[in-house]
Amino acid sequence: MQNIQHNNHSFLKDMIEHCTTQDGVHPTSIPSLFFIRESATTERIARVNEASFCMIIQGEKKVWLGDELFQYGANHYVVASIDLPVIGQVVNASPASPYLALKLEFTPGEMIEVYQEIKEQISSQKRVKRAMFTSESQPLLIESVIRLVSLLNTPTHIHMLAPLYKKEILYWILQGENGKALTQMMIEGSHASRISHIIDHLMTHYKEHLRVQELAQMANMSVPTMHRHFKAITGMSPIQFQKQLKLNEGKRLLFTETQDVSSVAYQVGYESPSQFSREYRRMFGLSPKADLTQFFHQDME
Q: pTM here?
């Protein structure tokens, strides 16, 4: 058994190293499958984590969802059942032993398709669960991942077989110890399902003034009940969730577009550039201007 696990790990490690000649996130010829490589530890990076399954093959990573820390390494995976604003940091990587991982994104429709076929095997759960979780990679799940990745060696079969192997991966995740964190989103009318509608709304309307009462009405809940379930799923209040979306987008605009801090603040929905700067410093540890200065200084070294 140990030899099989070693061979499986070596295969995935070799495939990722072969397909990634430099650091970063690399798409593959399999739709929604990405390989990730980092040859050094990274700074904390804020971004929206899409609904996805990510398996680490080598190295270690930390992810913060609100105030909750997820730390995981080789032979573990993390799943986000919905899009979530997170902060990630690779904490164990070097040129000789780079951080290597694979990410498989999925849609609600793909999850629902699997769930509808196996829902008789899954007991209902009234208590909502966090929408992100980590687990140890089990042999059957690893084998299904290998089947998917192996298609890169026979690309003519990707169109036919990749959807089947992806479905198999989702099946094993749903069967795992944390599968209920996925299924809760798919039970129409459940608390988790109703909170997911609020999250979808915030994702596209995060620049607008937040009216908590309207969000509660959207979920057909009282304000206290909505707050309780929202925090149980995301680790944040709706206001904190919106704030992180604003700051993530603000940082992206600062680093990718030639705009001053005031322009960015207004663009992401702040009424005051000074408030944007204060909250930016609180979240990222530096003011927007200091963050930019440090970035360009490091880039020139």
A: 0.85
The label of the residue with tokens 């992100």 reads: 132
User: What SS3 class is residue 286?
Assistant: coil
- First CA to last CA across the chain, in angstroms? 47
C-alpha distances out from residue 98 to 13, 16, 36, 78, 185, Å:
10, 11, 10, 19, 35
**Which tokens go with 265?**
């603040």
Quote the CA–CA distance of 198 and 226 in Å, as a whole number.
10
Q: What is the pLDDT of residue 112?
A: 83
Of 138, 135, 150, whose CA–CA distance to 1 is shortest?
A: 138
Write down the residue that tokens 């001053």 correspond to: 260
Q: Indicate whether 1 pLDDT > 80.
A: no
Q: What six digits make up the tokens of 278?
A: 């204060």
For residues 184 and 191, give the distance between their C-alpha atoms in angstroms, rounded to a whole number.
Answer: 8
Whole-angstrom Cα distance, residue 120 to residue 174? 12
pLDDT of residue 300: 46
pLDDT tens-digit series, residues 14-64: 999 999 989 999 999 999 999 999 999 998 888 888 899 999 999 999 999
DSSP SS3 for 269: coil
Q: Which two tokens stand for residue 277?
A: 């700067």
The pLDDT of residue 118 is 76
C-alpha closest to that of 129 among 196, 77, 72: 196
Choose among 47, 69, 147, 139: nearest CA to 104: 147
pLDDT for 162 equals 97
5 or 91, greater pLDDT = 91
